[in-house]
Amino acid sequence: MRFPTPIVNALCAAAAVALLAACSSNGMQSPAGIGSVQHSSVVHQNHYTVVSAIPKGFVGVKNPHILRIGAGHDTFVKGGVYVGQFSATAINLYGLPNKHNKAPRCTDGPSSAPNGLGYDASTRTMWDPDGGSRSLIPFSANCSGEGSPIAESNGQPSDIAVDGNTVYVADNSLDTIDIYVSGSYTGALSNSSCLGGGFGDAVDQHNVFQACTAGQIIEYAGGTGPGVLLSLTGIGAPIGMSFDNAHNMVETDLSTGINVYAPPYSGSPIASAPTVGSSTYNQVNAANTALYVGDYGNGTADVYAYPSLSYEYSISNGLSAANTVEGIAVDSQGHQATP
After folding, report:
1. H or E stretch including 219?
2. For 78-333, CATH number?
3. How far from 327 is each of 6, 83, 114, 180, CA to CA, in Å?
4. DSSP string, 301-318
5. What percent of the chain has pLDDT over 90?
């Protein structure tokens, strides 16, 4: 049984609405009409009405060997970029840089409706908030194996952020941030200002941020409390968030493109740029030289120079717009740059 849910007004941009996915009760994607998307999930016999999760990708690299990029370049890359597709059963890992659009080095899976991806740099673990199995699945670096999944008993996981032994999960069934400590559920963060479509979350300096597609970003200082609605201009339908080394928030928005906000995250962005497609989740690499963005409209992972935000190239090999490219995660060890 499926329960239709109208897309919030902020998502009414034609490119954004047309490609939002809908998920049936078995976790598989099914067609949705423009202007509405729906999810129906069953968890312990409880039904949840869920706005379709926006795609999220993860960046990681299988081959840890040193790569030399082109004559005259001394850029060395260890790691890669993980890219997830909502309707695919595998998550692709691409070597970096990949301006020649090479095929993925390897894949993680099986997965079932992966949404936004997460990454734990301390252990080089890629996390799949799996919408089909309603679980949080860890994968070791370089496609070297799946760990023990954690059941998400509250609803559909949409995004995931890691802070030490704590995992924060954007639950778009309930518009909450569910908290798991050492694999056990300990509670949830919520704020009534999140009016619908709590698709994204991120962590910086132990502060937790929640993106709600009706046009709100909530900050939970220290990962606790009711949170505070940030007063930001330029926000339309926020999905992806990541942070650079100066703690600037890099936000990808279905309506307004890429926006960068400096602490304490109020007012206008310090930088902004349009995107080349329908951009959702994002991640800045460790060297702060590149920004990777999932583009479900074009079925690509788009690469922008950072901090200039100028478009560089797209990765499409092994990806498809029909499969709804969503999640992005970056495993950017060592010195990494975009040529």
Report:
1. strand 216-220
2. 2.120.10.30
3. 23, 6, 8, 20
4. EEEEETTT--EEEEE-TT
5. 71
CA dihedral angle for residue 119, residue 120, residue 124, residue 129, rounded to 10 degrees: -40
pLDDT at 262 over 50: yes
Q: Output DSSP code: residue 83.
A: E
Which of 237, 333, 332 has the alpha carbon at shortest distance from 283?
332
Backbone angles phi, psi at 323, to 5 degrees: -90, 0
Amino acid at 202: A
Q: Is there a contact between 152 and 53 (Cβ–Cβ < 8 Å)?
A: no
User: What radius of gyration do the chain's Cα atoms show?
Assistant: 18
User: Can you give the residue ranges of every domain in the chain?
Assistant: 5-50, 78-333
Residue with tokens 């400590």: 181
Contact 86, 324 (CB under 8 A): yes
Cα–Cα distance measured from residue 105 to residue 286, given in angstroms and rounded to the nearest whole number: 20
Answer positive or negative: Cα dihedral of 137, 326, 318, 133: positive
Q: What are the Cα distances from residue 235, in Å, to 77, 255, 261?
A: 34, 8, 11
153: tokens are 């008993």
Q: Which two tokens stand for residue 250?
A: 């890099």
Looking at residue 298, its pLDDT comes to 97
Q: Residue 231's CB: how many other CB atoms inside 10 A? A: 10
C-alpha 243/C-alpha 291 separation (Å) is 10
Q: How far apart are CA 27 and CA 266, in angstroms?
A: 37
Please provide residue 10's backbone torsions phi and psi, each rounded to the nearest 5 degrees.
-65, -15
pTM: 0.80
The residue type of 312 is: E
Identify which of 194, 192, 265 has the alpha carbon closest to the alpha carbon of residue 230. Answer: 265
